[in-house]
Structures are given as structure tokens and as C-alpha cells.
Amino acid sequence: MMKKSIMLVITAVVAMLWCSCKDDNATFVVNGQLAMSEFEDCQVYLCTAEHADTLDSAVVKAGKFMFRGSVSSPTIGQLLCTSRKSGMVCEGTLVLEAGKIFIDMVSDSLSGTPLNDQFYATYIANPTTVELAGRMEEWLRQYYSAETEEQQAAAKTAYLEADSCYAAHMLNISRKTYHSNSDNILGAYALAMVVANDGITYDSLDYLMSHASPAVADYEPLRKARKQLFYLANTAEGKPYVDVEGIDYATGKWTRLSRMLDTNHVTLVDFWASWCGPCRQEITDHLNRLYADYHHKGLDIIGLDVWDKVDAHHEAVQRLGIEYPQLIDTTRTTATEQYGIVSIPMIMLLDRQGNIVHRGLRGADIEEAVKVALGLE
Fold first, then answer.
1. Whole-angstrom distance, CA of residue 9 vs CA of residue 31
2. In this predicted structure, what is the pLDDT of residue 53?
3. Domain boundary among 107, 138, 171
4. What pLDDT is recorded for position 25?
């Protein structure tokens, strides 16, 4: 009887320890489907959305693949497969949590565990989402098959209208999803979607994350977003410019943006890189001419080279015929981080006091803003 009691106790303790280990390292199985000949025998990579690190890879066989692994807590996963034949890319998003998960990367079907079922119902199978995505796909098809410029312009306008509606819809459902999932990883994903659709200020995001559950507060994409929104708010229109350091292209010496500014002039600061096609186009179509036409009237232009290599920058300056000063951010990232920049070109206008008058100027709007700043209009 004693032995039986001891065995029961041992069994209970082992079961408790096993359950504890299971909670700490929840096992998931992903049964995937990618039934397109383009992707047969290709590698599918499973990554985390938080750190973009690759957890595992699998080969598509007969249109199927499988992953098995464990996570200490639920996290957002990303699937990526690139066709070796055509370069076509197929992606999928899912929640890695304990249980068996099914995902079809063609139809985006997703099921098997509570958070994945909710993710699918909220973001993928939502009737409005399906309708708007279908409209965008159709207008995009019409844009590329258009036979006249008028047809193409009409398709582009319709696509942009549908895209705007889609963004507003995603913002709405993401807000609702966050409020009903503020204690789990789906809530973190939803709040990140709110940020991506410009639906929150830095102060509001900072407050939410300061009072959020660990699943939300520790979600790396949100931590990065909060940082970017802080820098965007700090360098918004009406705020003083933020000083940055780099190499003066003309002298090869270390300097600061503040030393290159002339307080008697208004200044365009162009964040650009040699490899960026739209950046080069703004220079050849607008900035070179504006410098020639308005420099003697009180306009300075400073090119702020980012995400680039010094040799490539030198070649681009020569080829594009740039005559205005250049500041090279040799760290490649500091200047863009300080201004919350995620894409270039980003052209901003500073007044004579060093205040940011405009951010994100493009095309003909650049000259109009310059004229106003110089008092020529």
C-alpha cells in the first residue's frame, strides 16, 4: 500500500514537471500547403516577425510542407518561399502557439489553434477585407492591361481609392482587435497594424505600451515603431532641425549639419542615396535646377547621403552633376533614425531660424515651397 502511494506521488510529480516544461516550451506543428508548380521543391522559410530570424526551413513536396518546433510563448511567425523558376514570392502570416496549425499559402486559409482561428476570421476571411482586396486586384489588372493613358489613369485612381478604403478598414479592425486582445500576441500584432496605418500618435502609443501586458510591451516591432514615432514627433514640421554628423564631401573632413547651414538662407536638406532611383530623379529633374535658379536669391541645398557607400556616392555626384554641398552619414543609419525616416528620398525645407517648414517635399511642390519661404510669392 505504501509503495502504491509513493508511486502515485512520483507519478503526480512527474506529470506536474512535464506540464510545467510543456508550458515553458509549447510545441507547435505547422502543416502547410503551397500547391503551385512554381514552388515545388523550393524552400519555405519560417521566421519570427519580431526579430526576422529564421527558425527553420522545409522543402515543398507534392504541394505540402511541415514544421515542428516549440516556443516559450506565442509569437507571430512569417512564412516565405521564393520560386527558383520565376522569382515569384509567396508569403504567409500565422501565430506560433501550441497545437496543430494548418496554413494554405495560396488561399491564405489558416486554422487549428485559438489565436490562428481568430487571426483568420479577423484579418483574412473578413468579408470587407475580401471585397476590398478583390477590388484592388481587379483595378491593378486593368491598370497593366490598359490600352490608353486615359484607361490607365482611371484604373490608377480607382486603385488608390480602394487602397485608401482598405487602409481605413484595416485600421478599424486592428483597433477593435487590440482592445479585445491587449493581453496576448495578437493584440501586439493588431497594435502594430494601427501604427502601420498611421492610426496613432507617439504619446498615445507610448502610454499604451507603458501600461501594456508583457506580450504587447515586449513585442519588438512595436518597440521599434515607438522609437520611430518619437523621432518623427521630434522632427515634425514646426520643430527645430536635429543636428547630425558626417563627412563633408568637399573636404573629406568630419563635420556637422549645423556647420553647413547659412542662417541667412533657407535650406533644402535632401536625404538620398546613390542607388535610389527616385532620389536621382528628384536631383536631375528639380534640385540641380533649383540650386542654379535660387541659390543667389537665398536658397541652399544640402544633400545628406544615407544607407550608402562613399565610393558609390562619389560616382553618383559626378554623374548627376551635383554642385551643392554633400554631408555623408558614414554610419549609414544615424541620420535617418534621428528623423524617423524609413524611405527615401525625404526632402525637407528649413527656414532661416532652422525650423522645419516642410517634410516629404516632392516634384513641383519643392519649388512652390521654396518660393514661399524666400518671400517670392
1. 38
2. 85
3. 107
4. 67
Please determine, for residue 202, whether its predicted confidence score (pLDDT) is greater than 90. Answer: yes
> Residue 67 sits in which domain range?
22-107
Rounded-to-integer distance, Cα 295 and Cα 266, Å:
10
Q: Is the pLDDT of residue 51 over 80?
A: no
Q: Predicted confidence band at 133 (pLDDT cuts at 50, 70, 90)?
A: very high
Regarding whether 357 and 286 lie in a shared domain, the answer is yes
Q: 228 and 310, same structural domain?
A: no
CATH (domain of 94): 2.60.40.10
Closest CA to 346 of 329, 333, 360, 327: 360
- CA atoms of 219 and 215, how far apart (whole Å): 6
The answer on 318 and 251 residing in a single domain is yes
Whether 13 is in a domain gets the answer: no
For 2-15, give one letter per residue: b (16+ CB within 10 A) or e: eeeeeeeeeeeeee
Q: Which of 238, 234, 236, 207 is nearest to 222 (CA)?
A: 207
- Please give the order of strands across the beta sheet that includes 266-272: 254-256, 245-248, 326-328, 299-305, 266-272, 346-350, 356-361
Of the residues 207, 234, 261, which one is the last residue of a structural domain? 234
| Claim to verify: residue 368 and residue 251 sit in the same structural domain | yes
Residues 141 and 207 in one domain: yes
Predicted confidence (pLDDT) per residue in 205-229, tens digit: 999 999 999 999 999 999 999 999 9
Say which residues have a Cβ less than 8 Å from residue 295's Cβ, sequence separation at least 6.
301, 324
Distance CA 52, CA 299 (A): 43
Cell (9 digits) for 295: 541659390
Number of structural domains the chain divides into: 3
Say which CATH number the domain at 338 has.
Answer: 3.40.30.10
Tell me the per-residue pLDDT of 316-359, one tens digit each, with 9 for 90 and over: 999 999 999 999 999 888 999 999 999 999 999 999 999 999 99
Relative to beta strand 110-111, strand 299-305 is: unpaired
Cβ neighbors of 8 (< 8 A, separation 6 or more) are: none
239 lies in a domain?
no
pLDDT at 332: 83
